[in-house]
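#structure-requests
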Amino acid sequence: MKKRFIKIYGVRFGLDEIEKNLDERFKIKFYCFGSDLNAIKKYAIKNPRTFHNHGKVEKNLADEAITGSDILISIGDVEGMQISSKIFDYLSMGKPILHFAYTQECVNTRLLAQYPLAHTVMLNKDDCYSESTIKNAALFVKKVNGKSMSFAMIAKLYPNALPETTAHSFRDCINRNCIIK
């Protein structure tokens, strides 16, 4: 699996194509760390006007970056089985989300499907991004730049994710003497 991960993420991430389809007003800032950080660093070195890598930062700095961003980028895991905790932070901000997925079964893609300000960039069968996929992502970025949704609207889309829903579930369980394992 490691070779596939490097092939997909490092070599064919798609930022070259996205950069070609966006004008210089757009800045892409990464606050990330992980297995293939070198790919992100290469983009930042190659074109520092568009790409900047801040690396791993403290939570409060990451929160400030999310708050100050126009569009949030999410990168799914290769197998598409892990829900990114960032997705919930991103959704709660009501900002547009551009999600990169490696598989049609990506749980983050399914979670974002009902969110009108989300767009998924999907790898094709050859583990790369088609030109039309990248152009559609760039069009999405241009279309939603500056847009947002209120928390009330998001709460209507995801009522089961609200803290009070969880609290009610626990209360109901306690009242029925449920055993939680």
